[in-house]
Amino acid sequence: MNFGQSFRLAIKSLTTSKMRALLTMLGIIIGVGAVIVILSLGNGLTGMVQQQVDKLGINMIQAQFFGGTADMLPDPEDMYDLVEANADILTGVSPYLGVNAVVRHGSDKFDRTSLYGVSEIMYNASTGYTIDGEQLAKGRFISYMDVERRENICIIGAYLEQEAFDGDALGKQLSIDGRPLTVVGVLKRNAELEMLPGSQDDQIYIPYTTALEIMGSRWVNLYIFTSTSGETADAGKRIIEAYLNDFFRTDDGMWNYFYITTMAEQANQINAMMGVAMGVLVAIAAISLLVGGIGIMNIMLVSVTERTREIGVRKSLGAKRRDIRSQFVIEAGTTSAIGGILGIGFGWMLAKGIGAVLGGMLSENMGGGVFDATPTMGAILLSFSVSVGIGILFGYLPANKAAKLNPIDALRYD
Amino acid sequence: MEHLIELKNVYKIYQMGSETVHALDGVDLTIDQGEFVAIVGSSGSGKSTAMNIIGCLDVPTSGTYHLGGVDVSTMDDDQQAEIRNKMLGFIFQQYNLIPKLSVLENVELPLLYAGVDSSERRERALNSLERVGLRDKGKNLPSQLSGGQQQRVSIARALAGDPSLILADEPTGALDSRTGREVLKFLKQLHQEGNTVVLITHDNSIAVKAERIVRLQDGKIIYDGDSRDPRAVVQPHGEDEDEEVGA
Description:
The complex is a heterodimer of chains A (about 425) and B (about 250).
Chain A: H1 3-16, H2 18-56, E1 60-65, H3 76-85, E2 90-98, E3 103-105, E4 108-110, E5 114-118, E6 123-124, E7 129-130, E8 136-139, H4 144-148, E9 153-156, H5 158-165, E10 173-176, E11 179-187, E12 203-207, H6 208-215, E13 222-227, H7 233-247, E14 258-262, H8 263-306, H9 308-316, H10 321-365, H11 377-403, H12 407-412
Chain B: E1 5-16, E2 19-31, E3 36-40, H1 47-54, E4 62-67, E5 70-71, H2 77-87, E6 88-91, H3 103-114, H4 118-131, H5 147-160, E7 165-169, H6 177-192, E8 196-201, H7 204-207, E9 212-217, E10 220-226
Parallel strand pairs in B: 3-8, 3-9, 6-7, 7-8
Antiparallel strand pairs in B: 1-2, 1-4, 4-5, 9-10
């Protein structure tokens, strides 16, 4: 009923004593600001993880073999058959061999370059993406015949083309452990800013058969599968698991004979970990909100004492307890709401500043991606309503004290 | 005819340490609609307690108080607030305007608590200010007005809710004699317009402006009658009329 007047009174008393108002709101400003910073940075990090996942494909399943007692691993042909037999869920598989070898071009040595042995399944010509999210810029990808014949060809990243071949690599050769390989394709550049050694643009794909020859090994111990979608990845994982348990003649070979993980699982794990970390940080920031609430309670108690006579007058004119109570609760709520708004603004700016510095570092390390440390609408609404809630909660006690004042004593108060 | 105010055998007893104080000691008093009554007495006579009880700011220890036919002597805080809002208009010695609110907002307050909507509230408050000749000061803060003007604002505030009874507690106590006379003239005018006015004062020269004088001493009524009767202003033995203000 007298909300408008209480609200204007609150604004008036805040503006007439600005220093006092600022000090009262400081706890709320810092608390809300800290919550906003934490939620914004967390949001930025989650976004970045999501970008990585999207790029690599949420439908990716990695299967790694440690081997069994018979010193035998499944053959790539077996894996192709497995995918074919479960075409409703699994859409592709490629060996994914990490190769340790020295990459040279002329007298230049590239020791941070990553080298992978893969099959032609790695590249999906209809989407134009490899399973791990790369695109071709020039030339072609590895073909079935390359794999069959163990051709000495390779597809290189944009960084290598730039550094080793001055931007024109097609048809030229580089050496891997002394073996000359011809460049038949170049991948699209990933990094938006500078390309660095060891980044996602510094890599080479070769046929896995060629890779096995280079390593002098028979067995492929890492595969990348794809499923029809992120939702079916888990079903795909169970199909592969069942097959491998059967192959290794074990009931539960997970962790011992092999390890299978989906991209969705990994993303969930990272998000869950970040969620816990953010929860802890927000809880710490909430202590500041509590302190802010106590500050508001303190100043409201002072305000009630200072305005005892006003309360008496209002009561003599017919104000009921709830009228007085709501007046002071609204005043406390308004104070902390303004503190909350200032805190949101302050936190937003701080998050942007930190995000700019941190985001630059992160996207360099993770090879691209945008770090957007903007608070979500949900975070803003949450912190705003929490600050109003704190004002109301901590304003209630002083307001109730005011409401219960005896009008005669209040009128005589000097 | 039913009395507007009817106090029957009213006691108000305080415990002050080990001492028991009878602020009101068996008071019977009736006041009718349209009367102009001064309650007079020195410090400690019980006139302030009487004013608190008549003004529904306090309840008697024993005895009954009917205001407008309703027993208000056993009401709780909020019920009394409602009675004050609907039936009473207070004029205080210290004006008691709220310094942060504009003059108009101050006058609107009783209407606000009565739940009158904002446009009607504004109009009635402006009319009330008009009656005290301060319509053009509505936007000012109380501190920008003189003492006499502030007291007129508080009268306007008392009138805004159309009360059945106007209670003036030492209304001239903080004013110089000229502005004090103006305020009294205004109270008299209100009475002539048909309002019931109860004036609480320690000052005989002010009390005689009323039609009827009720004199209290030691919590008892020692005179109740026409203000033109010479006995109305006789000082009881041992009392000095100027000894104290506003107790």
